[in-house]
Specification:
The chain is α+β, with helices and mostly antiparallel strands. The chain has helices at about 1-30, 95-130, 135-170, 215-230, and strands at about 35-40, 40-45, 50-65, 70-75, 80-85, 90, 170-175, 180, 190, 200-215, 235-240, 250-260, 265-275, 285-290, 300, 305-310, 310-320, 325-335, 340-345, 350, 365-370. Among the domains are: about 35-45 and about 295-370, conserved putative lor/sdh protein from methanococcus maripaludis s2 fold, CATH 2.40.420; about 95-170, Orthogonal Bundle (Helix Hairpins). The strands form three sheets. Strands 1, 2, 15, 16, 17, 18, 19, 20 and 21 form a nine-stranded mixed β-sheet that branches. Strands 3, 5, 8, 10, 11, 12, 13 and 14 form an eight-stranded antiparallel β-sheet that branches. One of its GO terms (cellular component) is plasma membrane.
Amino acid sequence: MKDVVKGALLALAVLLQGCEPTEKTAETQTPAVPKVDIATVTPSTEPLTTRLTGRMEAYRTAEVRARVEGIVEARTYQEGQEVKAGTLLFRIDPAPLKAELAAAEAELAQARAAADAAEDIAKRSRQLMADESISAQQYRKDFFTEKQARATQKAAEAKVQSARLKLAYANVTSPIAGRARRAEVTEGALVGQDEGTKLTTVEQIDPIYVNFAQPMADSLALRQSLQQADKREKPILRLRLSNGSTYPLNGTLLFSDWAVDEKTDAVAMRAIFDNPDHLLLPGMYVQVELQQPGQTQAVLIPQQALTRTREGAYTMVVDETNHAHSRPISADTLEGSQWRVTDGLKAGERVILSGSALKDGQAVEPKQATLTTQPVASKE
């Protein structure tokens, strides 16, 4: 029996000795270092270009309205036609207006005759007054009668002038040169009864405006670049159309509003483009590419290397000892598939392409990645 117990104890001791190295090995084992794809930060030599949504607006717009009451006799233009200032667009029935003018001219003739008669009486009264043949009261009466008659004559003259203007307004002409849009009324319509009825709209679209809003930070950068750049250097403006093509002519920046919209934190801006072929139309949405003069110190990082949080944008940087560190950066402009970084990084540093799960200071095994030129969604 004793031999059996000794044998069991001996076997247990051997078993325990065999387990000790395994436990020590497990205790001394270190976690695996994660492998990460990295990209090297490259300097940007291109001028800063901001891409903004804009909307086209006519250079001049004139609403053509009826200025007299009457029936539309004819529309004398083709809708969409290019017209010059003074081109006849509509004709309103002139018959009632001619009759009104004739009545006004007759009234003027009566007023002129009455004024001439009153003038003769006043002259005789003046002579009789000198001879003391009439009283001073009678003289004053004749004098003021003449004044009243002349005033009535002037009122009649004004009435004739008004009637002539109304007759002229029966021919509705374009106030500006441009493209006449569709007619708002047809022949036979009664217009100008209570107010000036809108007949059509004429728009001048060569040149043409584009209105857009620029974020306040970009607006400040633009103003600073304009101050620092050569006075001969101007911002370059291009338009990208909805079909992806680029408009062949560059534009000119006209102004930027001095007020900032409280809701959008943006500054209203306007540019002007020549539009000889009328390719640009009012109301059209376009992408405005605003290139600042001179060069801005900046670097580029792949789009997937940037992460945005409520605190701002940051990226993970790999140091010389292959440890990852979180780095806040300023990056507001996307150039193709790369973010333009104006603060927080310098050329030659290494950034991790997917490091949101890493801890600050964590060791990594970096691997240079092969980048694609296609844009990807940034991590928010």
